[in-house]
Amino acid sequence: MKGALLVNLGSPDSPEPKDVKKYLGEFLMDERVIDIPLVARTALVKGIILNTRPKASAAAYKKIWWDEGSPLIVLSERLKDKVQEETSLPVALAMRYGSMTIKKGLQELVDKGCDEVFLIPLYPQFAMATTETILVLAEELREEFFPNLKIDSLPPFYNNPDYISILANSIKNELKGKDYEYLLFSYHGVPERHIKKSDVTQSHCKIDGSCCATPSKAHEFCYRHQCLEVTRLVAEYLELKPDTYSTSFQSRLGFDPWLQPYTDRTIERLGKKGIKTMAIATPAFVSDCLETLEEIAMEGEEIFHEMGGKEFTTIPCLNTNKDWVTFLANKINNWSKNGVEA
Ligand SMILES: C=CC1=C(C)c2cc3[nH]c(cc4nc(cc5[nH]c(cc1n2)c(C)c5CCC(=O)O)C(CCC(=O)O)=C4C)c(C)c3C=C
Ligand SMILES: [Fe+2]
Ligand SMILES: [Fe+2]
């Protein structure tokens, strides 16, 4: 029997500092998130970050936490329930970090009789810190605990025409009747080093502004290319005028160079330039979460207003958008009939 497992990032069990510390400890000790040797990673994460960040992160989580729990978890659960309504295959949900483990998700499907699982990382673009870490862990778990299970996975779908039209239409609908002079596409950032590590050619990705627009085999694993493509394709679909939109990267951590331009500085620059109304879409996230509800909708708006901006519209993620639910259900149903599409 076949089943599907949706996998998102995860959240702490509660917005209390002790739960946030436990969650950040697991997350940041992942060698594909903080990709430095174990001794240095342990010293950085356990010796420095976990002594300071949990308190500040917990305060941020408290601002966005819902009665039912973490928005990211609640919205992912709602998504899973809606997808389940559109397929006869069992669908389960897991998180890469935290209590809703991938092991539990696979076990749930095995207990229902599944011997083939379609793994769906809930990220449109590939990144070593997201898609890759899910695939690697799922394979390790399969080898150790579920040796008879066959696991296929959905490749990144950043340039899938259906996904692009669903995203573009959701942006269009959210902006209907709203004033905006500028649309910013803000993606979660990654250290530049991650892009170079994922470059299968080891020579293409120079992060120099033009490499991501030059066709290359490297782009199958280039997060920067895939983000820029989403912006380009959505802008084309919505017929946005040049100079009324751009791409930026948010949520940087630490002192290494991350992908640029940074979102906070871009908002600042737009405000200073005299833009009075702007909107912001966050296509690296399919469910609203701390990074969209707090960092963008609260901090981003504050920066814009401080710079003289008037109207700041944060466009919700796809969440339980009907067409997005159908997109995922179609992927599951097609896999069940034909296997993984080329
Ligand atoms: C080195 C650190 C980090 C990398 C690399 C990174 C990549 C990355 N993350 C997401 C998606 C999400 N990240 C979220 C929160 C979050 N991310 C980091 C660090 C890195 N992320 C931290 C420390 C945190 C926790 C919050 C904080 O302390 O600031 C979330 C939200 C989780 C939630 O509970 O709501 C998401 C989603 C992507 C897509 C990505 C690379 C492409
Ligand atoms: Fe992150
Ligand atoms: Fe590139």
Automatic annotation (TrEMBL):
<comment type="pathway">
    <text>Porphyrin-containing compound metabolism; protoheme biosynthesis; protoheme from protoporphyrin-IX: step 1/1.</text>
</comment>
<dbReference type="InterPro" id="IPR033644">
    <property type="entry name" value="Ferrochelatase_C"/>
</dbReference>
<dbReference type="GO" id="GO:0006783">
    <property type="term" value="P:heme biosynthetic process"/>
</dbReference>
<comment type="similarity">
    <text>Belongs to the ferrochelatase family.</text>
</comment>
<dbReference type="InterPro" id="IPR001015">
    <property type="entry name" value="Ferrochelatase"/>
</dbReference>
<feature type="binding site">
    <location>
        <position position="291"/>
    </location>
    <ligand>
        <name>Fe(2+)</name>
    </ligand>
</feature>
<comment type="function">
    <text>Catalyzes the ferrous insertion into protoporphyrin IX.</text>
</comment>
<keyword id="KW-0350">Heme biosynthesis</keyword>
<feature type="binding site">
    <location>
        <position position="188"/>
    </location>
    <ligand>
        <name>Fe(2+)</name>
    </ligand>
</feature>
<dbReference type="GO" id="GO:0046872">
    <property type="term" value="F:metal ion binding"/>
</dbReference>
<keyword id="KW-0627">Porphyrin biosynthesis</keyword>
<dbReference type="GO" id="GO:0005737">
    <property type="term" value="C:cytoplasm"/>
</dbReference>
<keyword id="KW-0479">Metal-binding</keyword>
<dbReference type="InterPro" id="IPR033659">
    <property type="entry name" value="Ferrochelatase_N"/>
</dbReference>
<protein>
    <recommendedName>
        <fullName>Ferrochelatase</fullName>
        <ecNumber>4.98.1.1</ecNumber>
    </recommendedName>
</protein>
<dbReference type="GO" id="GO:0004325">
    <property type="term" value="F:ferrochelatase activity"/>
</dbReference>
<keyword id="KW-0456">Lyase</keyword>
<keyword id="KW-0963">Cytoplasm</keyword>
<keyword id="KW-0408">Iron</keyword>
<dbReference type="Pfam" id="PF00762">
    <property type="entry name" value="Ferrochelatase"/>
</dbReference>
